[in-house]
């Protein structure tokens, strides 16, 4: 995703098009991101310090303050960078298969402590930092927008009404799973994932996510 | 709800049946709960201290440590106490009306800073305290169990298949709203609430929440 511009993150490091892959700027940013993730996972947002990020990344504290402004800017940029991946939604041939695969990805991510720790830490940080919350909002908005082709394919196959909103459908699949993970603190399993996908599918078929004609 | 028994919370204060309403024990517990909520809302879990709760509640620090063990026990008991209310699910005469009223309650609660601050603080605390997470899990499990009559009435009216699980349906209404509030950090409004209710209704009608016959 394109990063949220901010005074603390100059375009040279935050706009993907202007960073040479593998260049010094990109390497620095990735090293800093790794240090931020490690710190968030280990200490949480309240315990994360610029000193820790400097020590872990090998980037001088003065540089961190100058380019990222402080802990809030570091966390927001790490999240921006997380959104610059090449993830695309599943394409299994049926909407039901695609939605079940989407739900399974959430279950698999959070079922793996190594994979789930960073997203959980970002979600926790957003409770304490408005900039982290903004970065999270941008991350998810962009992520759900990537699901448009999935819904277009389904509409073309006649599986959902034309005009079904991809973002609403994608959110509907994820919501019950994140709700259990971070609100009701209940376990996830494949049955829960399947039910989340089927519930979203039933709602989509019924036209709940279609804009009024 | 009945409180989670724990060494730090003796039955005399945590089991509702054994506390005389208005008695000294109940008054102390409520004063402590109010102080915990105020501290959570103002400073968040990382900033909450037994000293603060003592000062705000007028209950001696030694008593707080003896009866609640520390900050974790205080937060868990405040949440237990929050579950001891008399909330019952809406009864509007139709399942659609009931589900829309449920969703609207969430929107209204979190649209009111005074009402929404404490639940949000508990949800945040659960990221940092396993005991808070357990108390939250118990709180929601009991809350959703209270929705059984709502679903029984709907099944009796033929609005959903017999065997529809009340907990799954109630979770389905709430999940998209909490997802926006605390994960994707997107605003809630009446349209979003209506869509959450209608999506849960469509899924329930399609039998997604019915146990396999």
TrEMBL record, chains A, B:
Pfam families: TetR_C_11 (PF16859), TetR_N (PF00440)
GO molecular function: DNA-binding transcription factor activity; transcription cis-regulatory region binding
Origin: domain of life: Bacteria
UniProt keyword list: DNA-binding, Transcription, Transcription regulation
DNA-binding region: 49-68
Keyword Transcription belongs to the record: yes
Name this protein carries in UniProt: TetR/AcrR family transcriptional regulator
Chain segments carrying region Disordered: 1-26
Segments forming domain HTH tetR-type: 26-86
InterPro entries, per the entry: Homeodomain-like_sf, HTH-type_TetR-like_transc_reg, HTH_TetR, Tet_transcr_reg_TetR-rel_C_sf, TetR_C
């Amino acid at each position: 995703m394109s990063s949220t511009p901010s005074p603390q993150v100059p375009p040279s490091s935050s706009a993907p098009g202007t960073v040479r892959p593998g260049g010094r700027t990109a390497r620095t940013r990735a090293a800093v991101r790794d240090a931020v993730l490690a710190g968030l996972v280990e200490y949480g947002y309240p315990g994360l310090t610029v000193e820790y990020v400097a020590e872990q990344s090998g980037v001088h504290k003065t540089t961190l303050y100058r380019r990222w402004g402080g802990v809030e800017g570091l966390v927001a940029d790490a999240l921006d960078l997380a959104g610059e991946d090449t993830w695309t939604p599943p394409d299994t041939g049926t909407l039901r298969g695609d939605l079940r695969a989407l739900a399974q990805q959430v279950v698999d991510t959070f079922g793996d402590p190594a994979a789930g720790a960073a997203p959980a830490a970002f979600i926790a940080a957003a409770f304490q930092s408005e900039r982290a919350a903004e970065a999270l909002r941008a991350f998810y908005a962009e992520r759900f927008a990537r699901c448009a082709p999935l819904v277009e394919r389904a509409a073309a196959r006649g599986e959902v009404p034309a005009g079904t909103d991809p973002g609403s459908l994608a959110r509907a699949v994820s919501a019950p799973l994140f709700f259990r993970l971070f609100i009701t603190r209940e376990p996830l399993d494949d049955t829960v994932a399947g039910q989340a996908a089927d519930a979203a599918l039933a709602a989509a078929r019924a036209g709940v996510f279609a804009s009024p004609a």
